[in-house]
What we know:
alpha/beta; two-stranded antiparallel sheet; 5 helices
Amino acid sequence: MKTISAKANTIEREWxxxxxxxxxxxRLASEIAKRLRxxxxxxxxxxxxTGDYVIVINAEKVVLTGNKENAKxxxxxxxxxxxxxxxxxxxxxxxxxxxxxxxxxxxxxxxxPLGRAMMSKLKIYAGSHQPHKAQSPKPLNI
Length: 142
């Protein structure tokens, strides 16, 4: 038997469509991260981007369990003294509903250039409209 190592030019990518309405954030994000990395494929190679494209619709309707809707906060820092900004999930959901899913998936991806390349295959939309109908994405039931 031979071990097969995937090459970047031989990867065949598929498009998947995920409806995030009434889905738990963490379970949804872990399945999306698995598809973006390509871990569901038998040709998975850790140092090669073997993943597929994932389109997420209805990002504003994702569910958080427990008291996370009030207690969970997102931090960012400007790099300047006193530059810490803290935003609760409820505010983030009103202003930028796609960033909730994006932050959850980004935390599960590899850090560095490979992870950024994998994240570029993630398309998130707040509503049910998405412009990728020409790719004829397959529905992904999570």
